[in-house]
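Weekly modeling sync, notes
Attendees: S.R. (lead), two postdocs, one rotation student

Agenda item 3: backlog of single-chain predictions. S.R. asked that every request posted to the team notebook include the full sequence so nobody has to chase files. The rotation student volunteered to paste the first one in as an example of the format we agreed on. Action items at the bottom.

Example entry:
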Amino acid sequence: MSRIRGVFPLFLATTFGILNGVATFGPAFKDQEKQRLEKEQEGVEASKDPVPEEVQTSKDVETVARAGATTESVPDSIIAKKAS
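Predicted structure, as returned to the notebook:
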């Protein structure tokens, strides 16, 4: 019985310390996690959405360059895209 009396205050103090730490630092950890998730979402959204016109224009320019085309043989659709 005397052993239990010696261990009980240690158990009680440990439990109180853990609960106190969770109550004190829990909100700060949740805010930090929320900010981290928001930054990750911004990164995912930015990488998912390349500008389609720029991608298409670069493909058109590459096609023209490979063909060794002059301005007379460039399709009107490419010229119209570059003008706008």
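Discussion: group reviewed the output briefly. The radius of gyration is 32 Å.
Action items: rotation student to repeat for the remaining queue; S.R. to check formatting next week.
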